[in-house]
Design a protein that fits this description.
Blueprint lengths: L1 E2 L3 E4 L4 E4 L5 E3 L2 H12 L4 E3 H9 L5 H15 L8 E4 L3 E4 L3 E2 L10 H26 L6 H20 L11 H20 L1
Antiparallel strand pairs: 1-2, 1-8, 2-3, 3-4, 5-7, 6-7
């Protein structure tokens, strides 16, 4: 709702925006309930007893809370002359502000409300991916399989150069294994020398 074509009231978010100054005020839920109650009874006297019962659930300190709440609402709605929220002595209060429905002015979500959750989600995905690949390491195979495949590669080279044989597990016999090691070392030295 809009009060006096100046104050946009959003009861869901507990916000009152002054269109003239652009100032956004967050109000406590009880104040918003009180403002809504008075606005619902526009032009009619609302008794203090009813307000204390509805807003403060007959809490013993509700009378003092009501006095403070009315004072805060008057400041919030720039009602220093007490014309919008009239005090009716020994009875209660009467709301005289003009009320119009809000012309569906959806507020844009703030930067933080949209981008921070998206950034956190992205960081979480990156952490999971890095954790997964970090856990697997640069090699896809465990150390034993890696050594075994290296031995088989060396056996293939030795086979081409001198006829190597392997046992049933795919390992080179000891002489050929030394040859394969020598070939591997020579290959490494060759690569480093370039």
């Amino acid at each position: 709702m809009v009060i006096n074509n100046r104050f946009e009231v959003d009861p869901v978010r507990n916000e009152v925006t002054d269109r003239r100054t652009g100032k956004l005020n967050h109000v406590e839920p009880r104040l918003m309930k009180l403002l809504s109650l008075l606005a619902d009874h526009k032009g009619k006297a609302v008794s203090r007893k009813m307000i204390v019962k509805e807003i403060w659930n007959d809490y013993p300190g509700g009378d003092e809370g009501l006095n403070q709440a009315i004072s805060v609402l008057r400041k919030l709605l720039d009602d220093s002359g007490r014309m919008m929220i009239e005090t009716i002595p020994k009875t209660g209060y009467c709301f005289h502000g003009s009320i119009s429905p809000d012309q569906v002015t959806h507020k844009k979500k703030s930067f933080n409300a949209v981008y921070i959750p998206a950034a956190l989600l992205l960081l979480l995905i990156i952490a999971v991916v890095l954790g997964y690949y970090g856990y697997r390491g640069p090699d896809k195979f465990p150390r034993e399989q890696s050594v075994k495949s290296e031995d088989m590669r060396a056996a293939g080279e030795a086979d081409r150069k001198g006829g190597a044989t392997t046992d049933s597990a795919g390992r080179l016999d000891s002489k050929q294994s030394r040859k394969a090691e020598d070939l591997r070392a020579a290959g490494e030295a060759d690569r480093k020398g370039k």
